[in-house]
Amino acid sequence: MTFVSAEEICARVDGDFGRIVKMLSDKVALRSVSAEGIAGDHMARSARFVADQLAEVGVDATVVQSRNPDGSPGAWEVVGSRIVDAKAPTVLLYAHHDVQPVPDAGAWETDPFVAVARDGRLYGRGTADDGGGIAIHSGALRALEDTLGVNVKVFVEGEEEMGSPSFIPFIESHRAEFASDVIVVADSGNWSADIPSLTTSLRGNTSVDVRVTVLEHPVHSGQFGGPILDANTLACMLIASMYDLDGQLSIPGLDKQEPVGGLDRDLDEATVRADSSVVDSYRLAGTGSLASRMWTKPSATIIGIDAHPVSGSFNVIADTTRLRLSIRTAPDQDPRQAQKAVSDFLVAHAPRGAEVDVTPLDNGRGWSMDPRAQATKDALESMRESFGVPPINKGEGGSIPFIPELQRIFPHAQVLVTGPEDPQSNAHSPNESISLSALRNNVVAEALLLDRLAPRR
Ligand SMILES: [Zn+2]
């Protein structure tokens, strides 16, 4: 049961949709590229615009400049609230107003900073990521304006695309302002433009630098080659020892999880092959469901290697080499534990007694949703009602670093990851776009959710 009928909410959203699209279009024109300076005037303007738009839908919103960890002026954040009843639940609505840069405007079919509607989609940088999130919150609040039954707090961040350097200190210093029962993070997306999703889990990450040393200095490969293997070969042997015969990471203490958080559908191999552009002859690594291999089991990638370039190479045995390993960890494993497991393994498996030194680098936590929480059920039901089809939840192989941090700071809040994107959105790429029908349905779904979360009177 809801306070406002679903039909009424749909009618209100449809009546408001022109405003929502205009707001999103105006937002695109603001060019809020945080990579051009998070503390810049263009970012302050963008934050001001968002605060004004929120004020129009009844939120008491202000712009606050955060501080970077080194004390310098940081991002322009939008913080707001609308308190309707001290006894009602509180919902924190999150989005970010900064956008990805456009290094390749020539690859766009339209001007990236002029929103253009075409074939049911709105094109432009930030239409989906994450102007779409702002549009969803704005539309949902407008639809419920006089009948809102929950307290709403809003945080629209200004530096998400830069990895949120001041996010943790900012949230921690505004803990009371953000304290909430449910947190809706509208910065992910749906299974498709027609099928809604909650994001069930995010992998964590950790990285290490590995140095393999076999000689004090390079020597002639004709003279010493044979008993002495070069550092590059030894490093390859070391990395290969991390995998079993199926190509799956097999390191004691590095957790493998099966899908968590209420994931209900596996990925289709043909789609994964097409989306990734893998060569036809390649056999996918690992065993078990593709969903587990991409979303909940660990993976390791060599993202940098210091070796002599092929061009100009000559006949020496390399004395030492260094590589950087980036590891995605199971959603619920502490990444520090994963980092220690990998480091211990590499040192213990030093090929032929070569020296292996491991330098630990950054860690980021993963996250998984509680599928049994009432708010999760309410969100799924609202999506089903709005889109007219059952949601298909999905995991996320990458990380959204601030979500686990939010969950850590507010351990009792139920975090729901929704969002404006679909597989055609090209977030972070040329020709970014949002499906207008999905935007409308996302707005309706969020309004229905806020209505369901309100206490029954
Ligand atoms: Zn985003």
Question: What this model shows, in words?
Answer:
The mean pLDDT is 95. Helix 3 (131-144) packs across helix 13 and helix 11 crosses helix 13. The longest helix is centred in the N-terminal third of the chain and has 24 residues, at 6-29. It is elongated and about 85 Å long. The protein has 457 residues and is of the alpha+beta class. The protein has two domains: 6-201 and 367-453, Zn peptidases (Aminopeptidase); 204-251 and 298-364, Alpha-Beta Plaits. It has helices at residues 6-29, 41-56, 131-144, 167-173, 175-178, 221-224, 231-240, 269-276, 290-296, 335-348, 374-387, 402-409, 436-453; strands spanning 60-67, 73-82, 90-96, 116-118, 121-123, 151-157, 182-186, 199-202, 204-213, 219-220, 299-306, 316-317, 320-329, 355-364, 367-368, 394-396, 414-418, 433-435. The protein has a six-stranded mixed beta sheet with strand order 1-2-6-3-7-17, sandwiched between helices. The chain has a four-stranded antiparallel beta sheet with strand order 11-13-9-14. The chain is built from 13 helices and 18 strands. 32% of the residues lie in helices and 22% in strands. Bound molecules: zinc ion. Zinc ion binds next to loops.
